[in-house]
Amino acid sequence: MSPQNFEFHLPLSPEELLKSGGVNQYVVQEVLPIKHLPSQLRAFQSAFRARGPLAMLEHFDTVYSILHHFRSVDPGLKEDTLEFLIKVVSCHSQELPSILDDATLSVSDRSAHLNALKMNCYALIRLLESFENMTSRTSLINLDVGGKGKKAQAKAAHGFDWEEERQPVLQLLTQLLQLDIRHLWNHSVIEEEFVSLVTGCCYRLLENPTISHQKNRPTREAIAHLLGVALVRYSHMLSATVKIIQMLQHFEHLPSVLVAAVSLWATDYGMKSIVGEIVREIGQKCSQELSRDTAGAKGFAAFLTELAERIPAVLMSSMCFLLDHLDGENYVMRNAVLAAMTEVILQVLKGDQLEETARETRDQFLDILQVHGHDVNSFVRSRVLQLLTRIVQQKVLPLTRFQAVMALAVGRLADKSVLVCKNAIQLLASFVANNPFSCKLSDTDLAGPLQKETQKLQEMRAAQRQSTAASAALDPEEEWEAMLPEVKSTLQQLLELPQEEGDQQIADSETAEEVKGRIRHLLAKASYKQAIILTREATSRFQESEHFRHTDLEETSFLSLLGIIFKGPAASTQESHGDTVPAPTDSKDTPSVSEPEVSQRNDELVKQEMLVQYLQDAYSFSQKITEAIGIISKMMYENTTTVVQEVIEFFVMVFQFGVPQALFGVRRMLPLIWSKEPGVREAVLNAYRQLYLSPKGDSARATAQALVQNLSLLLVDASVGTIQCLEEILCEFVQKDEIKPAVIHLLWERATEKVPCSPLERCSSVMLLGMMARGKPEIIGSNLDTLVKVGLDEKFPQDYRLAQQVCLAIANISDRRKPSLGEREPPFRLPQEHKLFERLREMVTKGFAHPDPLWIPFKEVAVSLTYQLAEGPEVICAQMLQGCAKQALEKLEKSTSEEDPKETVPMLPTFLLMNLLSLAGDVALQQLVHLEQAVSGELGRRRVLREEQEHRTKEPKEKNTSSETTMEEEMGLVGATADDTEAELIRSICEKELLDGSQVLAAFVPLLLKVCNNPGLYSNPALCATASLALGKFCMISATFCDSQLRLLFTMLEKSSLPAVRSNLMVATGDLAIRFPNLVDPWTPHLYARLRDPAQQVRRTAGLVMTHLILKDMVKVKGQVSEMAVLLIDPVPQIAALAKNFFNELSHKGNAVYNLLPDIISRLSDPEGGVEEEPFHTIMKQLLSYITKDKQTESLVEKLCHRFRTARTERQYRDLAYCVSQLPLTERGLHKMLDNFDCFGDKLVDESVFSAFLSVVGKLRRGAKPEGKTTIDEFEQKLRACHTRGMDGIEELETGQGGSQQALSAKKPSAVSRRQPLTSVDSDNDFVTPKPRRTNHRRPNTQQQKSKKKKVKVVFSSDETSEDELSAEMTEEETPKRTTPIRRSSARRHRS
C-alpha cells in the first residue's frame, strides 16, 4: 500500500491492525518471524538514515512484529528497538516545527507526517508498556528477592535497568505534545484517540505499586508534566478527572502521587479548575456506597487530606462540595473533610487582618470542628481533638474561642474511648504551653489584679458618665427645643379630650418642688402624657406657688410652664434636696473639657476595658485548667499505659507554668514508680528528672541549692508512702549517677550545720541523704561517725525528729532482707561497743522519763536499727528495757513515799506506762524478726558453708559408698530436712524461751494484760492504743500465748469505744491471721464485721487488711465478702477507691468474682439486712463489669433466672432484673433466658422488671446478626405479652409458695444496721470462742434438711440458715481446694 494512499487509525487493541477495515485504512501485511527481526530492524535503520522519520511508513510491520513477539525476543533486540524508536521520535519532533510552519505544505505531505507521527508514537508507547508489564510481572514473581539481587535480576531480564529508561521516553513525549501538532489534523482538531494513547500510557505507569517509591520520583514528575501538557493544550480535564476518581478507588498507593500531580497542575500549569472538578466528583459520591467501599473511602480521604496540606487556598473554594460527607456514614470521609478544613484555617484563614468574608468562613469551619467534637464515632472525636491541638499549637485559634474549645476538651476527658481521653489531655497541654496570657497561671495570683483593675474600670466609667451628664446639663435649652414638637402634639390631644376624674397623682405630703422634680424626670424620660397630667393637677393644687399660680390652661402658657420647669433642673433639684451649694447657672462656672482631653479619656477607658478583658480571660483560662487538673488526676491510675503517660506529661507542663494545683498531681504520680509497666515507670522518672534534676542556676553551687530546695519541698507534710516512693526515685537517680557530687556535698553541709539552715531543712537533708544511701550505701557508710556525732549528740533537750531520720538513714547502709544461702561473707554488723548503740541506748533511756511525743517513733526506729546492725542486739535492747523499767519503778516508789500508802493506790504517770509498754512491744516484735530472718539466715548460711567444706574434704570413694545418700542429695531432701530443723529450732525458741519467766520480755506480760483487761481503770486513749498494739506484737511470738489471748484481742476489737484501738487491733489480727492462720480462722467473721465499723479510720484499715488477707488466700472468701462490696458506696472516697481496687485485683484471680456474685447478690438484696436499691445498683454495676467470659455470663443468667422463683419481695425481683440487664449477653445467653422464661415471666407486670428486660433486648439488637433477630423479636413479644397479662399468675404462685416463704423468713436473722453501734464489755461471758461443729449436734428437723437439699440448685448459700456459718470448723465441701503458701500447724494440737 502506497504511503500516500493509506490512513493510519490508532487501534484499541493490537489485533485490529491485522484486520482490514475501511477504505485506505492501514493494515499490517505480515507478522515477521523472530529470526528475521534483526535484519528487518537493520533495514529500518538504513531507511531512517535515508528518509528520516517517514521511514516508519514502510517499516511499521517490523516494529509491530517485535511487539507481537516481545516476550520471546532477545533482550538485546528489545533494547536496540527502544533506542532506535526514541531516536526516530526525537528526530520527528525536531523536524515538525519547520514542517508545521510551512504554508506550502501539500495535503499528501501533511497526511504522511500525520501517519508517521501516529505510527511512531504508537510504536514507542506500546514498547514502553510492554517493558512496564514485563517488569511488573518480574517484580511479582520475585517478591522475596530484595536489594541488589532484585535490581541485577531485572537488568538481566531486559539487558538494562528499565526504571532508569522510563523518564527519557516520557520527557520526549512531553516535548512532542508541546508542539502545535494539531495543524496536522483536518480543521486543526486533534483526534481524541491520540490524546488517550499518550495519557493512557501515563495512567498505566501509575498503576504500578512501585511508582510511589522514592527512587521513582523522576518518573512521577515526568508523568505529571506530560499529563499537565495534555490538560492545558488538549482539553484532557474531563477524562483526567474521571480517571483520577477511578484510580483513587482501586489503588491505595496513589493518593500521595496524584496529590503531587494535581498540585503541580494547579500551580505550575494554572489548571486550578481540575481541583474543583475532582472535589465535586468526590462530593457527589453516595455516602452509603462509600460505607461499603472502604478502600475507595480511604483513597478519597487520603487524597483530600494531602491535597489540603499542599494547596489549601485552591481547595477552599471547593469545600462546599464536601459538606454532605460530614453527615455521611463513613467516618474516614468525615475525618478527611475536617482535616481539610483545619489545613485551610492553618494556612489561609489565619491572622488578625482577615476580611469579613474570610473571618466568617473561618468561624464556620471552627464551628463544624467543635460540633464534631461530639461525633458518634470515637475516631472522629479523637481526630477533632488532634486537629484542634494543631490549631492551638500554631496559635491560630481566636481568643474568643478559648473558653468554648477548652470546655470541649474538659468534657471529652470523661469520654469512654481511651484514644479520645488521650487526645483531650494533649489538647489541654497545648493550651497551657501556647497560652497567650502568662507563664504563671495561678488563679489566686490573677484574682487580685482582676478585682483591682475591674474596680478601676468602674470608677473610670462612672467618671465618664458624670462628665457626659454635666456636658448634657449645660444646655437644656437645646434639649427642650428638641422635645417641644412631641410635647405640643401630646398636649393638643389631651386638651381636646374632656378632663376625667382619675386617681390622685400628688400625695398630700408632697411639696411643689418635689412635684416639679417629678415633672422634670417624666419629661426627661419622654413620658409627656404623664408629665402634662401631673402638671395640670399641680396647677390646681399649688396656687400659691410661683410657677403653678397661672390658672390659664391654654396651649401656649402651658407649654411655657413646662419649659420653665424643665430648663431649671439644677436649681430646683438642689432646692428640693436642701443642698446649700449653688448650681452652676453660667457656662463660666462650669469647667470646660477640651476635645483632645475627651479623646484621651476615651482612649484610656478603651485600654482599661481591654486590660480587664485580658485579665478576665486569663482568670477564666486558669480556672478551666484547674478544673481539668481535678479530672485528669483521677485518670492517673487508668489501665491504659498511653493515657497514664499523657497524664504525667500534662502535670509536668502545668507544674512548670506555676499552676498551684499541679503539685497535687506531681505527688499523686509518685506511687506509679512501682508500676509493672516499664513505660509508666520511665515516664515518672523523666517527670521528676525534668522537674527536680534540671533547675536553673548560674553556677554548680546555685544549681545544687535549687535542686535541694525543690526536693525538700516535696518532703513537707509527706506521708510515709510518699517518702518511700521518693526514696525509690532518688535511689534510681543515684545509681545512674544523675545526682552530682555537689548536691551530696551541700546536703552534708546542711546536715552538719556548716551552712546556716533551719531545723526542718537540716532534718530534710538527712532524709535525702538516707534515701540516696539506698542507691549508694557509701554516701552514709563513709561518714557514719560524723552522722552519729551530729544527729545523736548529747545535748538536751534532744531533737528526736532529727535523731529518727539519722537512724533511718543509717539503716540504709545494709540490706534489710533475709540473707541468701549462697552468701559467702557474713552480713554487715557493728560491735556492741560501737558509739552508735551507746548513743541510742542513752537517748532511749534518758528520753523515757520525759513526755515528748516524738520519743515513741524515735524509740521504734532505734530498736529496729539496733537489731539490724548490732552484734547481739538482744543484750542492748534488754539494757534499754531494764533501764526504762528501773526509772518507772523509781518513779512509782517516789510517788508512794510522798503520799500515805494506806489512803491512796500508788500512781504512775500515764506517759511512763505508755512508753514502757510501747518499748516492750517493739523489742518483742524485733526479737521475733531477728530470729526469723537474721538468725535463721545465718544458720542456713553457715550450714551451707559447712556442707561445702565437708564436700571438698571427702574422698571420691566415700562419695559413692551410699547410693541412697546421693539420691537424697539430688532430690534436695537433705537441704529441706535441714531447713525444717532450723525452722523448728527458731519456733521452739519463740514458743518456750522468749516469753518464759526467766526472760526480760516475760516480765512485762502481766502488766500488759492488766492494762488491756481493765479499760475502765486504764482509760487513757493513747495508753489503750499503745497497750493493744503491744499485745498484738507479743501474740506474734508464740502460738500458745496467741491462742490464750485471742479472746481478749477480739473482745477489744469488737467492743472498744476507741477507734484507734480497733484500728490497731485490726492490723494486729491481720498479721496473726498470716502467722497463725488455723488459730485465727474461727474468728474470721469478726474481721469482716469491722468493714461496717462506724469509724471511717477503722473501715479503711479493715479494708486494707482484708484486701491483703483475701488476695493472699489467707482467709476463706464466702458470703461475708459482700461487706467489701458495700465499701464501694462508702461516703469516704478513699475507702470506696480501696474497695474498687480490691475487686480489680480479685477479678484477675480466675473465676473468683464470678463464684462470689450469687452470695453477694443474695445478701445485698435481702430486705432485712441488705442495702437500698440505688446503692445496690451502683455496687452491682461495678461487680458485673468483671464478668466478661461468655460461659460465665450464660451460667450467671441461668442462676439469676432460677433465683426469681425463690425471691420473696418485689424489691428482690427488681434487683435480679437489674443484674440481668447489666450482663454482656450474647445469643446463647438469650436462649438461656428463653429456656427459663417461666421463672420470671410472671414478674414482668412490674414496670421496673419489664424495663430492665427491655434494655436487655436493646443491647442484644445492637450487635445481633440477621439470623438472630427473629429470636430477639420472639423474646420481646413474650416480654410484652407477660407485661400486659395481669396479676393472675402471680397470685396463684403466691398461694402455692406462701408456706415456704414464711418458713424462710422465720429462719432469717433480725435486721442489722450496716454501721453497728459498739457495745460495752460487761463481763467475760459477753464474748466466748465459737465451739467447733460436731456432726451429732445437728438440728433434728430432718424434714427441713431434705427440703434444703432439694433447693440447693436454685437457692444461694446466703439464703440458707446462717447458724452453720458461725461454726469455727469447716466442713469438707467448705474446705478451700487451694492450699496457702504458709506452713500451717495442726489446729488439733493447739486446741489440746
Automatic annotation (TrEMBL):
InterPro entries linked: ARM-like, ARM-type_fold, CND1/NCAPD3, Cnd1_C, Condensin_cplx_su1, Condensin_cplx_su1_N
Region feature Disordered, mapped onto this chain: 571-601, 942-968, 1291-1392
Matching Pfam families: Cnd1 (PF12717), Cnd1_N (PF12922)
Domain of life from the UniProt record: Eukaryota
Residue ranges occupied by any Condensin complex subunit 1 N-terminal domain in the UniProt entry: 77-240
Cellular compartment(s): Chromosome; Nucleus
Comp. bias (Acidic residues): 1360-1373
This protein's UniProt keywords: Cell cycle, Cell division, Chromosome, DNA condensation, Mitosis, Nucleus
SUPFAM superfamilies per UniProt: ARM repeat
UniProt keyword annotation of ATP-binding present: no
Regions of compositional bias (Basic and acidic residues) in chain numbering: 942-961
Biased composition (Basic residues): 1331-1353
Domain Condensin complex subunit 1 C-terminal residues, every copy: 1061-1221
Function, in words: Regulatory subunit of the condensin complex, a complex required for conversion of interphase chromatin into mitotic-like condense chromosomes. The condensin complex probably introduces positive supercoils into relaxed DNA in the presence of type I topoisomerases and converts nicked DNA into positive knotted forms in the presence of type II topoisomerases.
Protein family per UniProt: Belongs to the CND1 (condensin subunit 1) family.
UniProt name for this protein: Condensin complex subunit 1
